Amino acid sequence: MAAYHVVYDIELLLPGAGPDPFGGVWGALPPLIASSFLALAGAAAVLAQTRSPSRRGRYLRRVTLLAGAALAVSLVTAIAVPDRWVRFGILHLMLVCALLTPLLIRRSSATLAGLGAALLGVGVVIDSLPGNWALLAVGAPPPGFRSVDFWPVAPWASAYLAGILLGRFIFGEGHRAGRRALLGDAPARLHRLVAALAAPGRHSLTFYLTHQPIIIAVVWVVITTSGRRPAWP
């Protein structure tokens, strides 16, 4: 994600100076990145349910953080890029999925698989229909709609459902997961290495919210110090 945003920000600040972020291999990355985010979130929901099924406080805290983060992204992009601000981005979709998780987690795997397939089908059909603002979150935006981040429920929530199914396969009922369970009596330095590598994942929301401003600032400084003028802001 961070590597893609470096390429994206170069194109934003100095069009044509770097690889095309909208075509070729780079253009194929955003759907893969978003799908992995959603699938990991779905698997994590299963893991959380397996570890502490009655911890409602942690669930409410997570939902509140997602809601605040999604609102912050909308407000900041409305100021920075008012013609393409985020109305329903990846965090908005993850918030919807999180709100529905208590219902989804109780459904059978067959039901979730069928719902995921239905969302994929709806995504294909609705993409060809004339949209409006009321159907934006579903996947049918109005004509001329532009946004720097847009991931509607259909079809992308299917990746979250796939993550729940994956989580059920990996984290069965009573499965003991975690670094210590995985590494056991491995040397302490290996435990420390794995803990360091896992650190960004433990703070993924913070990383998501802060990495773009940092990358934009660095790219902007590099461009200006090279004697060229950025195209934005």
Features:
233 residues; 9 helices; 68% helix; mainly alpha
| Order of SSEs | HHHHHHHHH
Please identify the structural class as seen in this structure: mainly alpha
C-alpha-based Rg, rounded: 20 Å
What global shape is seen? globular
Counted by DSSP, the helix tally is: 9
Low-confidence stretches: none
Q: What is the number of independent domains? A: 1
Instruction: Give the termini distance in whole angstroms.
Output: 22 Å
Count of individual beta strands:
0
Beta fraction of the residues? Answer: under 5%
Largest sheet: none
- Helix fraction bin: 55-70%
- Overall pLDDT: 89
Brief characterization of the structure:
68% of the residues lie in helices and 0% in strands. The protein contains 9 helices and no strands. Helix 2 packs across helix 6.
Task: Describe the model.
It is a single chain. This protein has 233 residues and is mainly alpha-helical. The protein is built from nine helices and no strands. Helix 5 (109-126) runs antiparallel to helix 6 (153-170). The radius of gyration is 20 Å and the shape is globular. The model has no long low-confidence stretch (mean pLDDT 89).
